[in-house]
């Protein structure tokens, strides 16, 4: 058993090494004064200075964040409505039909989403730019939020709602005092997922962003096509740090939620 | 239970019709027009020409390769992960790289696989000498697998985590070797996770276009690249839509195939 354990640890170590080495590579060369991603010459912070002096880039970062936060918030609201709607449907066939409709955007390749949205916005006369990017980010996030919230709703015992009604709660009270607090972890998870998808999206944005408006992914793409520039490395180091902070925060929030549930004695299955 | 009408359905359904149904209908509609706006089936006949068929075959072949390699790496990883202490933390660490922007990772590989990059340094030290790695099939498949692997690990991990360990003990007690236990107990019970993972990798892999540009240097042309080309470069939306329609149909077929498998598995267990 001991030897098996060693092999499995070795394997995992290899996987982690491969997973993280490109990121480490980027971070390492962001300090290179040589200006290329090979042959480390000396330590410098010039590339970071360049990032912070590049107002165009900073505006793009801001754009990306605004799009991510707005689209996550709005898609969470639509997602809550969607999950509640699907949950309430009693007829099996209708429920299934809605669920498959919900899944269409999740399984669709980005290229198809991007191309079809491009047609949609052109026909609807929406100018390509902030609005079109925001709308498409909301569009592909809503189904994900729905999927994150639905299991929580299914977990919820109907007796909770019956009890609330027996005690005189109206529809709004039931929703705001019983249902929403119960599915809160799902809502948070959905919001975070939407945020991630929006920050990570390249293909859809690439199609629906016109001239003049770009998000970070599109900007990196056009810069990377021109070749290597170490300010991209510096930027990715900063992004990586922010990601790590977010992840650690998310992990602790999650653990606290999990701990609470265990203490309340809610069965995990 | 019909006392309150389903008011939540209104905004959700409206949104879905606008952003799911309408785009698909539009793309199907556009595929029937040529560049000058004339109604025609030409786009589809053009798709049946050897150029496009070859491209389709290529896309499927690469997507298959990427899926198979992802699964081969991901399954043992997920398996060993479920056996570690603090497994949720380790799992999180697997997911973290997938939160880093895809473009940045592709960009990192341009550096690593470059002529003077890290990979070539290693090859030189090993006595093999410098090789052209960037802009080859190998680099394309490697980077794609790298990017998709968390999406394969996650569903497989979840399936393995739900597996009741007493089933494994029972199988061992009954004299099965570890390999037999894996083949007859563990793998069949985690098949749903494997299917979900393959779906999550295969469909996006079919239509990759950014990695083909950056890593494969336009050498590998997939259906995704072709759609992007037609929509954004040649402005032939009709042809692009026709390819998209074919992709949508392929996707639906894949979904139905894996979906019916699910139902079958459920019946089997009852």
Structure explained in plain terms:
The complex is a heterodimer of chains A (269) and B (270). In chain A, 81% of the residues lie in helices and 0% in strands. By secondary structure, chain A is mainly α. Chain A has a domain at 55-227: MetI-like fold (Orthogonal Bundle), CATH 1.10.3720. In chain A, α7 runs antiparallel to α8. Residues 259-269 of chain A have low confidence and may be disordered. By secondary structure, chain B is mostly helical. Chain B has one domain: MetI-like fold. Chain B contains 13 helices and no strands. The longest helix of chain B is centred in the C-terminal third of the chain and has 33 residues, at 237-269. Chain B has helices at 9-30, 42-47, 50-81, 87-99, 102-113, 118-125, 137-162, 165-173, 178-189, 191-206, 210-214, 223-233, 237-269. The two termini of chain B are 29 Å apart. In chain B, α3 (50-81) packs antiparallel against α10, α7 (137-162) packs antiparallel against α10 and α8 runs antiparallel to α9. Classes of the chains: A mainly alpha (269), B mainly alpha (270). At the A-B interface, α1, α3, α4, α5 and α6 of A face α1, α3, α4, α5 and α10 of B.
What are the main properties of this structure?
heterodimer; A: 269 residues; MetI-like fold; disordered C terminus; B: 270 residues; mainly alpha; 13 helices; 76% helix; 0% strand; globular
- Any idea of the CATH topology of chain B? MetI-like fold
> Largest interface, and how many residues on either side?
A-B, 77 and 77 residues
Q: Any idea what the shape of chain B is? A: globular
End-to-end gap of chain B: 29 Å
Q: What structural class results from the helix and strand content of chain B?
A: mainly alpha
Q: Please write the CATH class name of chain B.
A: Mainly Alpha
Order of helices and strands of chain B: HHHHHHHHHHHHH
β-strand percent of chain B reads under 5%
The CATH class of the domain at 55-227 in chain A, by name, is Mainly Alpha
Q: What's the order of the H and E elements of chain A?
A: HHHHHHHHHHH
| Fraction of helical residues of chain A | over 70%
Helicity of chain B, in percent? over 70%
Per DSSP, the total helix count of chain A is: 11
Task: Tally the beta strands of chain B.
Answer: 0
- Poorly predicted tracts of residues of chain A: 259-269
List the domain count of chain B as a whole number.
1
């Amino acid at each position: 058993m001991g030897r098996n354990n060693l092999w499995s640890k070795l394997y995992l170590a290899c996987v982690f090494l491969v997973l993280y080495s490109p990121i480490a590579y980027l971070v390492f060369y962001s300090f290179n004064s040589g200006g290329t991603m090979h042959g480390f010459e000396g330590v410098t912070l010039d590339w970071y200075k360049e990032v912070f002096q590049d107002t165009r880039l900073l505006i793009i970062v801001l754009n990306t964040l605004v799009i991510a936060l707005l689209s996550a918030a709005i898609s969470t609201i639509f997602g809550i409505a969607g999950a509640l709607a699907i949950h309430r449907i009693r007829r099996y066939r209708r429920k299934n039909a809605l669920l498959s409709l919900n899944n269409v955007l999740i399984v669709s390749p980005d290229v198809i989403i991007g191309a079809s949205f491009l047609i949609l916005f052109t026909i609807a006369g929406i100018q390509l730019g902030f609005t079109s990017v925001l709308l498409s980010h909301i569009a592909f996030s809503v189904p994900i939020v729905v999927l994150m919230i639905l299991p929580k709703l299914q977990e919820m015992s109907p007796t909770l709602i019956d009890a609330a009604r027996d005690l005189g709660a109206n529809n709004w009270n039931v929703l705001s005092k019983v249902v929403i607090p119960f599915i809160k972890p799902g809502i948070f998870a959905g919001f975070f997922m939407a945020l991630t998808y929006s920050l990570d999206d390249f293909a859809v944005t690439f199609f629906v962003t016109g001239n003049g408006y770009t998000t970070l992914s599109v900007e990196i793409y056009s810069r990377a096509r021109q070749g290597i520039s170490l300010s991209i490395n510096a930027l990715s180091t900063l992004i990586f740090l922010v990601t790590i902070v977010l992840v650690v925060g998310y992990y602790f929030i999650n653990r606290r939620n999990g701990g609470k549930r265990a203490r309340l004695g809610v069965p995990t299955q | 239970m019909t006392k309150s009408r389903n008011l939540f359905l209104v905004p959700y359904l409206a949104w879905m019709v606008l952003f799911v149904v309408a785009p698909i209908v539009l793309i199907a509609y556009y595929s029937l027009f040529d560049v000058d706006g004339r109604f025609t089936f030409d786009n589809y006949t053009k798709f049946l020409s050897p150029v496009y068929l070859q491209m389709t075959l290529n896309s499927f072949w690469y997507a298959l390769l990427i899926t198979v390699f992802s699964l081969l790496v991901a399954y043992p990883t997920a398996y060993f992960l479920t056996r570690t202490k603090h497994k949720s933390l380790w799992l999180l660490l697997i997911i973290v790289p997938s939160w880093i922007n895809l473009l940045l990772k592709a960009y990192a590989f341009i550096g690593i696989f470059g002529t003077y990059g890290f990979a070539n340094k290693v090859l030189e030290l090993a006595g093999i000498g410098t090789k052209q790695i960037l802009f080859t099939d190998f680099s394309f498949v490697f980077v794609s697998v790298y990017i998709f692997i968390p999406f394969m690990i996650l569903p497989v991990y979840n399936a393995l985590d739900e597996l009741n360990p007493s089933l494994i003990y029972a199988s061992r007690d009954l004299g099965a070797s570890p390999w037999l236990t894996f083949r007859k107990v563990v793998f069949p019970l985690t098949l749903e996770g494997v299917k979900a993972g393959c779906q999550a990798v295969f469909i996006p892999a079919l239509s990759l276009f950014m990695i083909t540009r950056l890593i494969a240097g336009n050498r590998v042309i997939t259906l995704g690249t072709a759609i992007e080309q037609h929509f954004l470069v040649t402005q032939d939306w009709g042809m692009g839509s026709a390819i998209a329609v074919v992709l949508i149909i392929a996707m639906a077929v894949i979904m139905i195939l894996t979906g019916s498998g699910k139902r079958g598995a459920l019946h089997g267990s009852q």
